[in-house]
Records
---
Amino acid sequence: MNKITIKNNENTESEIFIENDISKKIQDFFEDKRYFLITNTTLAKLYPEILYKFNKKRIIIIKDGEKYKNFKTCNYILNELLKEKIERKDCIVALGGGVVGDMAAYCASTILRGVELIQIPTTLLAMCDSSIGGKTGYNTPFGKNLIGTFYCAKKIIIDPQFINTLDNSNYKCGLGEILKYAFIEKSCKNKKLYNLLNFLTINQTQDVKNEMPYIITCCASLKANVVSLDKKENNLRKILNLGHTYAHAIETYLKYKKISHGEAVSYGIKYAAQLSYNLSKIDKEYYNKINFLIDKFSLTNKKLKLKKEKVIELMTHDKKVQNGRINLLLPVAPLEVALFDNIDLPSLEASLL
Ligand SMILES: NC(=O)c1ccc[n+]([C@@H]2O[C@H](COP(=O)([O-])OP(=O)(O)OC[C@H]3O[C@@H](n4cnc5c(N)ncnc54)[C@H](O)[C@@H]3O)[C@@H](O)[C@H]2O)c1
Ligand SMILES: [Zn+2]
């Protein structure tokens, strides 16, 4: 079993455990307290054996989907917990992807001013990203994740076997974020260098499912390191956004349909690499390596037919454009990225292939 410890604020710690089939023995993590499970309808159907480990009265099942990531669902969860007389010494367990995880964590952080939280992430994205770092929240009509708190899970139990039931789109979504970690690894200032970039490049097959315990350990460790160095999103955490300025514009453009978030991030990384190469910040060899890896995992194969002007308009919409220039995170060397605050709009346009 791989174990990672994160030092949080106020001398608390989060522990991450990664092992195939670890979810089959979650009772080994239980102490002498009451556990409330929060999950969704899809996972409840797929994994009834996990639900059996909880008292029926302490299982809360919510509807599946980003559109239910809202105040109403959180209010429902909080009321169900209060109905069953949750106490401060009890613990909330989140079983699901980022949507369940973010809302369960929000409820754990606010109910009775905070009860213990265990995350059991079931999507690749949640394993590598959303379950780590303590960001909680839900969406409002004014935008995504606008209400939330910072609240870290005590334990994050990662069972890579959950990936076997994920559909291709959600699998690719996680792969896109994994590639992101491969390109920012040195900038994460991790003590240990995994060289995930090399690992993924030389791995013979494009289906890396069997390697997931190792790959997730690399990504979880990198994210854990970045968030422990930058607990409240001041600066270092920005490196986790490689490809995301492009990605958010593309997702808005396509109304969150057609491609997954991770695929949008992959297009974003591809464009960022093009921009970097055009501006002579990376050489041809590294430029080719980035493209090779994105192509190897077929992450940018869809014909999107994007109008360049519209993408640029969306990219500059919520970012301050000063003197016709915006800031952007770009690859500058293998495993390294840097933030530039002077990218002019013609260069940005030229990066959109
Ligand atoms: N807190 C953070 O730091 C952070 C970081 C990134 C993203 N997020 C949030 O995460 C959310 C996206 O998370 P996501 O991509 O995991 O989406 P999700 O939680 O909606 O899960 C995607 C789909 O997969 C299903 N699913 C989950 N696990 C499964 C499994 N093992 N087998 C079969 N189906 C399964 C879900 O029911 C859902 O239909 C967004 O709301 C985003 O804002 C949060
Ligand atoms: Zn992302």
---
Amino acid sequence: MEPLQLYKKLFARFGPQLWWPVTEDGETRPTYKKRKKLTEQQKFEICVGAILTQNTDWKNVMKALQNLSKEEMLSCEKIANARQQTIAGLVKPSGYFNQKAKKLQAFCKYLKKNYSCSVNKLFAKPLPALGEELLLLHGIGQETADDMILYAAEKPSFVVDAYTMRFTERFFAQPKISYVEVKRFFESRLPKNVQLFNEFHALLVEHGKRSCKKNPNCRECFLGKECAFPKHLAF
Ligand code: SF4
């Protein structure tokens, strides 16, 4: 099955996922909602969330983001100028809080020094230069950079995470495929469309949570007939 056909099947099954959840002006809790346009503050929040979501569930990130919002610390200027301990305390629910505080400050200090704290100025860079620049920063790996590029900068860079890796290895029979290979696999077979990449990644996560888990529920999976993996299993 071609990736575009797979996308259509997933979308028909699960519907729009409305990623990436962000906070509306005057509120403190990120919400999933169809939005015509992101504000610069929301784009910055996505960058913060992309760092905080490393090695943890999104529900923990929500708590950390809410802490930052309630303390009026969800700002590049404030994070850059704060004591690391203060940021660590606020992002504690997301785990690895000392490391994440350091990463957030590295990002915000860089943004402040080079772009006057404006993510819009940073995101004015074209691809692939934007990705290359992000990858040079402390604590920003491939997945975090792609999260920022796709969901905040709204440029077509396919995001690969553990769910996507696992699914691709199984469904498309691509064992031991690397991050970059999975990314290339999808990008070379899909139209370069931000909304498509946005929704597709979110749908793969949804499917990964419901069926294609570490121990996959292949018997119940609606993609079982098309998937290469169950054929290796003894039913
Ligand atoms: S059939 Fe199994 S391995 Fe294939 S997508 Fe479904 S859950 Fe994953």
